[in-house]
Amino acid sequence: MAVAARRGTPIYEGTRIPSPIPTVLQVDPALREEGDILEVNFGPNHPSTHGVLRLIVDLNGERVEGIAAVIGYLHTGFEKNMEAKTYWKGITYAPRIDYVSYQNNELVYVLAVEKLLGMEIPPKATWMRMLLCELNRIHSHLVYLGTSALELGAVSMFWYCFRERDAILDLFEMACGFRMHTRYFQVGGLAEDIPPGFYDACRELCNVLPARIDEYEQVLTGQKIWLERTEGIGLLSAADAIALGQSGPNLRASGVDWDLRKAEPYLAYDEVDFDIPVYYNGDVYDRYRVRIDEMRESVRIASQALEAMPDGPWIADDRKVVLPPRHELHTSMESLIHHFKLVTEGFRVPEGEVYVTVESPRGELGCYLVADGGPRPWRVHFRAPSFAALEATATASRGSLIADLIAIVGSLDGVMGEVDR
Question: Is 167 helix (H, G, I), strand (E, B) or coil?
């Protein structure tokens, strides 16, 4: 893990992490005794909290003096539900944990099961997974950019970003039949082969996206109001970011060069050429710049994946784990039995435990899986980067204005489904 060299004045001296509770900014008792502190509820029904999040904010005028997050409004018990389902059925729960980065959540769970099984998947499935995950990364960053810009007054950016988001969802629908929560990643590979016309449509989008990202920057990057609302706001130093368990764009915007796609390559990331954007100011503006640059790099990766996509099978040939081809069900009793047994009872996974990580759009996404030898996992737990990002809210909001709090929460890019799980 390398920390990028800073230019000029450091972000701030020492640490700003609140004490004694790192995730809660408490009001100075002397200030509270003056009687000017107003406690307000920011959320849970507020569009700028990016989900069902309640922030209890103590204000002195427009200045944030205290803040505490209240979560659990979106708790759905995904992990416990997955423990009650077979491995085969549990795949559908994973993408709903982070409903903006569903492909990456689907991937990390499938990779964990495959690691326990010791299963090798075909190269075509590996490259297609990488392609779809990078499209999903662009999709996630477009949602961040469109909504965060909208909250700061750049209304047109929302429509520009969602124009490209809709084009990416069209590709997902073409490949998987669904626009969201696709369940396209299957244990052993992919659920179906890549449909005709997908490569051409994806290549066309990859050719268009760089110019569209340029347009986003023309609207925002040098715009005076955008700079005033983002530069020097929501500061988070490299040391504090590491101490608070940050990862992904929030960590790299604070000057730490760490990306699992480079540090611990998975899929085919070690076979493609791309750069890791790192900025050093640790503010809302640099978190924006990291995500803009990441979209450019994701387009590069997707374009290389399209050119290098191998031929061959899209799923492993292991009838004890993988559903038999549909055309065999009409002619083979053995295939029909295998299909029935897998769907109703699932497949068995050898005893063991594993922790697998991927670089989701929000950072290090991990899946801890414990198998007891049966068809259902004994324990499922996800390391959610959104939860860690929410923990940094108190540090980044210290001394800010209530209007800046909206920009800070948006720049940390948390998804409450992933926080509550």
Answer: helix
Cβ contact 389:419 at 8 Å: no
Contact between 51 and 414 (Cβ < 8 Å): yes
* Tokens (6 digits) for 39: 């406690």
The pTM of the full predicted model, rounded to 2 decimals, is 0.92
Total Cβ atoms within 10 A of residue 130: 24
Q: At what angle do helices 198-220 and 123-151 cross, to 10 degrees?
A: 30
Q: Tell me, letter by letter, the H, E, C secondary structure of 181-236.
A: CCCCEECCEECCCCCCCHHHHHHHHHHHHHHHHHHHHHHHCCCHHHHHHHCCCCCC
For the CA atoms of 214, 203, 165, 100, the dihedral, rounded to the nearest 10 degrees, stands at -110
- Within 13 Å, how many C-alpha atoms sit on residue 308's CB side? 18
Q: Per the omega criterion (within 30 degrees of 0), is the bond before 20 cis?
A: yes
Give the pLDDT of the chain (421 residues) as one tens digit per residue. Answer: 544 444 445 688 889 999 899 999 998 888 888 878 898 998 787 777 777 888 999 999 889 999 999 988 888 888 899 999 998 888 888 888 888 888 899 999 999 999 999 999 999 999 999 999 999 999 999 999 999 999 888 899 999 999 999 999 999 898 888 888 888 888 988 988 888 999 999 999 999 999 999 999 999 988 899 999 999 999 999 999 999 999 999 999 999 999 999 999 999 999 999 999 999 999 999 999 999 999 999 999 999 999 999 988 988 888 788 888 878 778 888 878 878 888 888 888 999 999 999 999 999 999 999 999 889 999 999 999 999 999 999 999 988 999 899 999 999 988 888 888 7
> Cα separation of 88 and 416, whole Å?
25
